[in-house]
Amino acid sequence: MCRLLRPGAWAAAIFALLTIPALAGGRLNRAEYSNTVRDLTGVTLPLTQSLPPDDSGYGFDNISDVLSLSPALLERYFATAQRITSNPDVQKNILACGQQESGCARRLLGALARKAYRRPVKEAELKRLLAFVKQARREGDTLENGILLAVRAILVSPQFLLRNEGDPGSEIALASRLSYFLWSSMPDEELLGLAEKGSLRATLAQQVRRMLADPKSAALTTNFAAQWLEFRNVNRVQPDRKTFPDFDRELRVSMARETSLFFDAVVREDRSIFDFIDADFTFLNERLARHYGIEGVTGPEFRRVQLEGTQRGGLLTQASILTVTSYPTRTSPVLRGKFLLANILNAPPPAPPPGIPPLAETSADTHTSVRQQMEAHRANPVCATCHARMDPLGFALENYNATGRWRANDGETPIDASAVLPDGRRFSGPAELRTILKSQPDAFRNALGSKLLIYALGRGLDAADQPALQSIRERLASNGDRFSALVLGVIESAPFQAGPSERAGE
Is the sign of the CA dihedral 248, 254, 255, 260 positive or negative? Predict the structure, then answer.
């Protein structure tokens, strides 16, 4: 076990950091930082709680414009780097060559910095790291501690913390964009090696398929899907205990697990993206199956379950999404309709005008349904235009209560799940809603393509990105709407190839 660094050594590390020229590029967010440390050291450590939550933009927490690097956050990185390199398992993996062997520090730090910086290391950078080893030796410390000091400097350097791998159009930069898009982590040796040889673009489709098949692609579920579908918020919602006494931690965890497994299945089986809207299967354990009223599922383990003959199908009937789009005591057709417009149809409504009171979150009137209250609310002509778009979509889901359980009545009032869209189309209930959504396939292709492109680029979209979105839609339509076609469409698009800080044609 190495000794803790003395204050003077930390001061030297800070000084060395400040003398490195400033680099442009978005900061790694908490998930990316944790995954990168895992892949760099070979050890999984609970690091996300060591760092503050990341700000979000455009619905995601990997947007470069909002990921600042403040002095306070830098201090947290220093403390976390100390914690990482003090871990015996990390030390064992890092200090992999005989410590008195000539040239060990150079070889070890050169290899580690190449992985950490996601690019070849310059000689000047390597000399800067070796200076930490020399400093430690001058102060009477061991070679091992000197190497660990240099590793800490790597872990707090701009080259590690910031997403900047040189020329945005280079294959080195492309390798990093690929890995952080699909894995939320650094490139592996195969990816980086191909980029260094200039062979990555020639094998791009093959590499994408390999990466999607890798267990690390679960990051797409954890970091993209959980934000796109908002089901990461299920950990924070608090349904009213009096109204929903059966809601407990086990049900909460099961809700999120169902949606995670379902999204992951679409990715790994390369299914149609329209399975997100209407699929004949899901993943349940006994607790969630009982909540849904589905028989024949026993035990805590999740398993694939066919949904024929049930009131379920696709993401919109899953309890995680139905719960996060409800209030603690009741459903909200507005929240559910707004979710559908923003995330499934890519047509988010504007913010409500100032001075318009919201419908009360609670209502003790069991003789009046939420629908009846909403229709009274819509009588205000200022509210009517937006609610005419949102409410019908939400009304179709009213048979699901605020925790996603099927019901026939709202209080004492029978559920009316019928709806009329602004264009006059009539439908009723979740099954017909799914039919309506599938009847306008380009709307969903555009919505999901937009969300995934924002996530992949780490920035919002503008008019210059519209040709790329059109190309993504066309690629999906001509390839059976397979998820891999969506991913390849994003990766081969001009904005992704140009880099996150660039615009096609500029």
Answer: positive
Domain presence at residue 50: yes
Do 370 and 447 lie in one domain? The reply is no
Q: By C-alpha distance, which of 182, 223, 178 is closest to 61?
A: 223
Crossing angle of helices 483-491 and 171-182, in 10° steps, is 150
- Residue 313, sorted as left (phi over 0), alpha (psi -120 to 50) or beta, turns out to be left
Whether 400 and 477 map to the same domain: the answer is no
- Asked whether the beta carbons of 195 and 172 are under 8 A apart, the reply is yes
Domain span holding position 414? 325-438
Q: What is the pTM of this model?
A: 0.91
Residues 6+ apart with CB under 8 A from 385: none
Do 427 and 435 form a contact (C-beta atoms < 8 A)? yes
Domain end point (choices 145, 164, 183): 164
**Number of Cβ atoms within 10 Å of the Cβ of 76:** 13
Range with lowest mean pLDDT among 155-169, 428-442, 464-478: 155-169
Q: How far apart are CA 465 and CA 30, in angstroms?
A: 28
State the first-to-last Cα distance of the chain, in angstroms, to the nearest integer: 52
Q: Which residues of 212-249 are buried (b: 16+ CB within 10 A; e: fewer)?
A: beeebbbbbbbbbbbbbbbbbbbeebebbeeebeebee
27: three-class secondary structure by DSSP:
strand
Contact 216, 183 (CB under 8 A): yes
| Per-residue model confidence as pLDDT tens digits over 299-317 | 999 999 999 999 999 999 9
Residues 447 and 378 both lie in one domain: no
- Of the candidates 36, 39, 72, 7, the residue with the CA atom closest to the CA atom of residue 159: 36
Pair (147, 60) in one structural domain: yes
Interhelix angle 441-457/429-438, rounded to 10 degrees, is 80
- The CA–CA distances, whole Å, from 238 to 249, 320, 327, 362, 402 equal 10, 12, 9, 14, 11
**Dihedral angle of Cα 112, 117, 118, 122, to the nearest 10 degrees:** -90
Residue 493 vs residues 213, 464, 490: alpha-carbon distances, Å:
21, 12, 5
| Number of folded domains that form the chain | 3
CA neighbor of 229 nearest in space, from 452, 28, 33: 452
Count of CB atoms within 10 A of residue 411's CB?
Answer: 15
Helix axes 441-457, 483-491, angle to 10 degrees: 50
- 182-225 pLDDT per residue, tens: 999 999 999 999 999 999 999 999 999 999 999 999 999 999 99
Is 367 within 8 Å of 413 (Cβ atoms)?
A: yes
Closest CA to 382 of 361, 351, 337, 347: 351
Integer CA distances (angstroms), 257 to 11, 443, 492, in order: 45, 27, 31
